[in-house]
Automatic annotation (TrEMBL), chains A, B:
Pfam family, one: RMMBL
SMART domains in the cross-refs: Beta-Casp, KH, Lactamase_B
GO BP terms in the entry: DNA-templated transcription termination
Annotated ranges, domain Beta-Casp: 419-544
Species whose genome carries this gene: Natronoglomus mannanivorans
Chain intervals for the UniProt region annotation (KHa): 3-70
Stated name of the protein: Transcription termination factor FttA
Domain Metallo-beta-lactamase: 192-403
Cofactor(s) this protein requires: Zn(2+)
Transmembrane segment boundaries: none
Spans annotated as Metallo-beta-lactamase C-terminus: 576-634
Keyword entries, A-Z: DNA-binding, Endonuclease, Exonuclease, Hydrolase, Metal-binding, Nuclease, RNA-binding, Transcription, Transcription regulation, Transcription termination, Zinc
Cofactor-binding details, from the entry: Binds 2 Zn(2+) ions, which are required for nuclease activity.
Residues given in the record as Zn(2+) 1 binding sites: 240, 242, 327, 350
Length: 634, 634
């Protein structure tokens, strides 16, 4: 940023601030405008000044005390304990003098914040440090802890990075924005390898970068000239953490990308968890992982978190706003405002439109949205799911019947999302006596993923959030949940033991511990294999679901080939995806409705039938893109 | 090319050649396979060997005598004069010892060639030199002469260039061809700045690179990542010489492109003529030309001519075949065969489907053609042209009426195409007494463009070709045609003289001498301004045609603004473009019919209405692309 720009910005900020408040410096850090002041205590008095400034300057604004204006850490620590009620359960205080900030980790962050931020402001007034609060997860999560420690340790490098990004974002766009284009790099007429490029005359944004379940090697078309070289990309946006959207994000850093990733905090942590697991599965299966954990750390270090509803500048000519998508923890419908009122594009990401046990329904309300790139997983004419009550009853029946013949029910599930939904269903069913109480074993990353859910309860549905924050009501802490942490030996014991329920990854039977469970329990007619989620074309899950009982386990265990004798069942209604009705309603109830919709993230039939239906029903211009096409808007 | 490849190729060629023929070396020059032999006289005996080899090897094949096997030039010259009848009118012999070739320039090349190439073979047998024939244009053309001299002078550099291109073309494609894409860099929902990119995993081909008449500055989107950097483009194909397809080709060489341009010989020469004129118009109007004549020469030097019907390798995975398009001299419907049987794309370029006085109708017969990018100039529902007889009668009437009131008829026309058509119409009308004989003045590049037509009579319609080759029947040599070569003074004289007819460029009244004619003759109600060609949106021609009489001449002459009092008439039916019926028939009579058609090169309504009509009538998938979009096939 030139001195000139800086002066202008300083002047603009000073003009907006009451005269008794002193502005010593103004700087960009990533999308945020940071205001340094000698009078942090004065700033803290006025609860509205921050939001007023943000509105006027149309930026995310942070106030920081200028160096030398704060109390000493020991004084400050005493003061904080004085102000915050003991009930808050403060676990840790972390003073960062370079940014004048103290991180307060507490079990009940609400009590540190106070109503309307009253307590936080009181702290800042008293000590001159900016107070930020983070929650101690009710279930210990090594992922959340590792990410937090890592980011603390990398704080200085990260600050430099944020300043670099800040300059880039807040520069003037050099060219008029008279077009915006979307190029499909994957995920068209298929489920998997989600990856899209938004380009304007000034900017390139990559949305998602996933793998394709069941089709290793079919990766997004990143080498085409629109995307290559990768360092020509200005920013990456991640809609949610599932591997078909996130798996190849770290790869970008291997091939020269060094810019930001914008996503929600839980998505960042889940992405770390799932990509590390992706690497370990690959190496267990004897494949060469496409990148190393080093690049996963890089991806985490380069992530700039955004909260639902916050308008964030991510380029000189693009503003991003993420909204709840109802699909998994942290999943986001991502709204891009291009140019100064020029055009608006929504990426639905994966959505669930009705509320579920875990999440509120997907947001479909935007100031403007002319085009939408929309998922179509269940876009076929007959893709209606049974309603939740019915689905749950059916699950009860299947488990009861299996239990009665002394069998075990194995449920393949994504570690993130469907597992937690099922855990809530099963916990309630046992509590209410709908199924007998028996052990529910969690295999793979499910327990850890659950812990991450409890670290971000503000992303969950209201009632569930309350229950999680009260230890004795936290459904995820129920006794019957047991982690499979003893490897193959423990699995063999469980398999030969009394009936139980097993939730195991991967959700589409493409690898991971579910392969061992197939081998151990599949040949026995007393057991049941129960599918509760979408099985993509090309996956073993899909093949089994459509009647194949001769399966290949791909060199796992002793038996390469296996004949399944167990009962095979599918129950819909637990999907993290909207069904056909939900997809139609998502569009039908949008206001204003987009002019153009691209139907992606669904097989040939699903995208074809959904795009026809939306066109006929709502008279929207719809397309069923292929990979490698470019659409220009408007 | 590696030694290994060379050996293999040498072996393959030797295997196909009868044992008495000696093959000393085999090399690629551009798309051609050049076979060197110590026994050129033996090769020449067998009239079929060349075509047999071409068919077997699927290459364009040239035979060259190995150095030291030929007669001396003086011996050879005597021999040639002995063999060729005097009637042939040999003008010049040019011996190129590096390639063992003698260029014979003759007034009647047919007599040098002999029936089925008999005489040519006889020459080669006698002298050991490869004989090539070129025609002395019946009307002297400085363009044709300059281009020939320039290419002769650059022969050595050109040979190196051809070897470089040859290696590139005949290398193995490194990636499987599992997609081919077309990106629209211009000419969508508009007429002008034609430019399209064909890409495969291995190759980028640019088709056309024109300007937009009436909208200077609206150039093709060459800076987008699909096309940039320009040296990532492997080859350029030019469908015809009009500036809206060719004007910015030389610019490519300014910005780093150094590869081949594939087009017909007449298009090469006309492109040279028109782009040099484009530069001179720009500098006369005080604009900075985007490139210099140096780059025009470069473009000519890099042109590899193709003949109608010849299958030419232009990349490891793309073969080009050009066919008559009926639009202007050398214009080509361009067929791209992608991969080994993978896909076929036709670019119609500008077409006229019915035969005209000048040309046969556009070719629409291909072995396979799955997709077509098609012009839509007259694609609107009501864009039917009156038939030629009626149109000609109407022109006679208008000229007669103007003549009777002592007025002059001014016809703005493209130098290339419409002018020659009109010349034929007017010459016949005067010969048959339909209009009085009076001077027909040709202003701008029209005379020179006409001369180029006579240099390539094989590109004209049969009857016309015969007439041109007999001096006393050559319609373009009629006495009434007079070149305006005395500048503004001569124009003032003509304007104040007896009634006449004036054919003047530019065809859409966007600059050039027509501006002077408007100024001199426009204010007088006795004169007529007669439009016979398409006037694109944004041009002065379109504004006048739609009734505007107050026009600005843009600083030309004394009067900046001018009120037209002359009669304004438009007669359709002379267009070089198919009308709506012709466009429909072009598609309807294609066999096989393409699955997908992109309607381009027409305004919003024309492309919309044509694409709807083709879809409804022929059940073809049609699109009305925007600029900057990418379509993937299949």
């Amino acid at each position: 940023m030139s001195d000139h720009d800086n002066t202008t910005l300083h002047d603009r900020v000073t003009a907006e601030v009451p005269p008794e408040l002193d502005v010593t410096d103004v700087q960009y850090e990533g999308p945020d405008l940071v205001i340094y002041t000698n009078t942090p205590r004065e700033f803290a008095k006025d609860g509205d000044i921050l939001s007023t400034l943000a509105r006027t300057l149309r930026k995310r604004v942070t106030i920081r005390p200028a160096p030398g204006t704060q109390s000493s850490p020991s004084e400050a620590e005493a003061k904080i304990h004085e102000i915050v009620p003991d009930d808050a359960g403060i676990q840790n205080l972390d003073f960062h003098s370079t940014v004048g900030e103290v991180l307060i980790e507490a079990k009940k962050p609400g009590l540190v914040i106070g109503s309307y931020g009253q307590t936080l402001r009181e702290i800042t007034q008293a000590i001159g440090w900016n107070a930020e609060v983070i929650r101690t997860p009710p279930i210990e999560s090594s992922t959340v802890e590792n990410v937090r420690n890592f980011l603390t340790q990398e704080r200085d490098e990260r600050r430099e990075f944020l300043e670099r990004v800040g300059e880039q974002i807040h520069g003037e766009p050099t060219k008029d924005v008279d077009w915006v284009r979307v190029t499909t790099l994957g995920c068209c007429r298929e489920v998997g390898r989600a990856s899209f490029l938004i380009h304007t005359p000034n900017t390139k944004i990559l949305v998602d970068c996933g793998d394709k379940p069941g089709a290793e090697g079919e990766v997004p078309y990143l080498h085409v000239p629109e995307a290559a070289p990768l360092n020509s990309i200005d920013a990456v946006v991640l809609t949610h953490a599932h591997l078909d959207h996130s798996a190849l994000l770290p790869l970008l850093f291997k091939y020269g990308y060094d810019g930001p990733i914008y996503t929600t905090e839980p998505t960042r942590d889940l992405m770390g968890l799932l990509t590390l697991d992706y690497l370990s599965v690959a190496s267990k299966e004897g494949r060469t992982p496409p990148y190393s954990s080093e690049q996963v750390r890089k991806a985490i270090k380069r992530t700039i978190p955004v909260k639902y509803g916050d308008v964030t500048d991510i380029a000189p000519d693009i503003k991003l706003t993420m909204h709840n998508a109802g699909h998994i923890l942290g999943s986001a419908v991502s709204h891009f405002h291009v140019g100064n009122g020029f055009y608006n594009i929504v990426f639905s990401g994966d959505i669930h439109y009705e509320p579920t046990r875990l999440f509120n329904g997907a947001v479909n309300d935007f100031p403007r949205a002319e085009a939408m790139i929309m998922e179509s997983t269940y876009g076929r004419r007959n893709d209606y799911q049974t309603d939740t009550d019915e689905s749950e009853q059916r699950v009860h029946e299947i488990i009861n019947e299996t239990y009665e013949q002394d069998g075990t029910t194995v449920i393949p599930a994504f570690a993130v999302g469907r597992s937690q939904e099922l855990m809530l269903v099963l916990e309630e069913a046992m509590r209410e006596g709908d199924i007998p109480t028996m052990p529910i074993y969690l295999d793979g990353m499910i327990r850890e993923a659950t812990a991450i859910h409890t670290a971000y309860p503000e992303y969950l549905r209201d009632g569930l959030r309350q229950r999680i924050l009260h230890e004795d009501e936290n459904p995820f802490l129920a006794d019957q949940f047991q982690q499979v942490d003893g490897g193959q030996e423990m699995r063999e014991e469980i398999a030969s033991d009394d009936p139980s329920i097993i939730l195991s990854t991967s959700g589409m039977v493409t690898g991971g511990p579910i392969m061992s469970w197939l081998e151990l329990l599949g040949p026995d007619a007393d057991n049941t294999l129960l599918f509760v989620g979408y099985q993509a074309e090309g996956t073993l899950g899909r093949r089994i679901e459509s009647g194949r009982t001769e399966v290949s386990l791909n060199g796992r265990g002793n038996a390469d080939r296996l004949t399944l004798a167990c009962r095979i069942e599918s129950v819909s209604g637990f999907s993290g995806h909207a069904d056909r009705a939900g997809l139609e309603e998502f569009v039908g109830e949008m206001n204003p409705r987009p002019e153009t919709i691209l139907c992606v993230h669904g097989d040939d039939q699903a995208t074809d039938q959904l795009s026809s239906a939306l066109y006929q029903k709502y008279n929207v211009r719809t397309y069923q893109p292929k990979n490698l096409e470019t659409f220009r808007f408007p």
